[in-house]
Design the sequence.
């Protein structure tokens, strides 16, 4: 009688951003880790990619700084748990994965691997 499949939204598999293989990333040095204290965010551009890096409870996460719904500045939005809320229309994205988790966005955004080495933040960008 019960449904054995987990409930999903109709858009959940339409436009998924597929994370790239971290071993194929080129890691770019961004800034000293001391410049990104807990609860803060750092805006950077790597090549032509606007990226925002979040420090959430000591863990660093990097996502594309452009909402897939209307190209709003995601990094300016509020953070609720591990979600960032676009300040324009309220679309939400998981900063760990880039997954669109609330309408009106249905397209995921890029999420980039982050490393801290020798006290410096590095973000992994797909090799071109």
Sequence:
């Amino acid at each position: 009688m019960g449904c054995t499949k987990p409930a999903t939204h109709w858009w959940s598999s339409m436009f998924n951003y597929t994370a790239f293989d971290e071993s194929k990333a080129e890691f770019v040095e961004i800034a000293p880790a001391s410049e990104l204290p807990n609860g803060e965010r750092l805006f950077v551009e790597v090549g032509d990619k606007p990226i925002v890096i979040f420090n959430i409870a000591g863990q660093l996460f990097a996502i594309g700084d452009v909402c897939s719904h209307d190209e709003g500045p995601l990094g300016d939005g509020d953070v609720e748990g591990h979600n960032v809320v676009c300040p324009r229309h309220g679309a939400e994205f998981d900063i760990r994965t880039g997954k669109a988790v609330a309408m009106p966005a249905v397209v995921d955004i890029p999420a980039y691997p982050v490393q801290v080495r020798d006290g410096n933040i590095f973000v992994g960008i797909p090799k071109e």
Notes: Residues 1-14 have pLDDT under 50 and may be disordered.
